[in-house]
Amino acid sequence: MAQLKYLVLDEADRILQSEFAAAVEEIIKRLDEQRKKYEEETTAQAQAQEQEQTQTLTTKRQTLLFSATMTKKVERLEKACLHDPVKIEVNQKYQTVGSLTQEYLFVAAKHKLTYTVHLLTELSDRSVIVFANTKKSCHHLSLVLHNLGFFVIPLHGEMTQYERMGAVEKFKEGTKSILVATDVAARGLDIPLVSCVINYDLPIHSK
């Protein structure tokens, strides 16, 4: 591990919000310690042999950190593991459009499904994504909507990559007008012409 050349931290903001945050920070700390120890031992060995320092470590470790949002935790991780960083930020044209309208509907939990069905009936001629927090909730909602005659397809983390991409393609093509998904579809998917997004369950994280 002392000779590790590349360390990639993808979706750093989500990692640091999970139970793996402490483990990631500990891994980075151990990597730095091992590398420093290796460099010291290599230098001492070269000096003892009256030779030039070995070139086993020709380059420093390159760390690549990707994050959809720059939270304080991500900034702290950036300072801890990046040296002389080059920062690339996404252009503003990819940010949320100004015409986006957000609405909240407060209903009793026992009526949530009924109101969701009502909303989807009103939006029957449009493409809609419905987010659920868990695979169980996603599956249950998909089954209910299917039995009510909606053209719906589920998308969650327990599906294979092939199945997930197939689901997204069907939704893009209009084969299915309602995509019921967990947060596996929240980021990294380019799905144009979506008229409405419904959070069936209250999102765990506001961002």
TrEMBL record:
SUPFAM superfamilies xref list: P-loop containing nucleoside triphosphate hydrolases
Keywords: ATP-binding, Coiled coil, Helicase, Hydrolase, Nucleotide-binding
Residue stretches in coiled coil: 21-51
UniProt cross-references to InterPro entries, sorted A to Z: DEAD/DEAH_box_helicase_dom, DEAD_box_RNA_helicase, Helicase_ATP-bd, Helicase_C-like, P-loop_NTPase, RNA-helicase_DEAD-box_CS
Domain Helicase ATP-binding, chain residue ranges per copy: 1-88
Gene Ontology cellular component terms for the protein in this record: cytosol
Gene3D superfamilies: P-loop containing nucleotide triphosphate hydrolases (3.40.50.300)
Domain of life: Eukaryota
Pfam families: DEAD, Helicase_C
GO molecular function, one term: RNA helicase activity
Domain Helicase C-terminal: 115-207
UniProt protein name: ATP-dependent RNA helicase Rrp3 (Predicted)
Organism of provenance: Reticulomyxa filosa
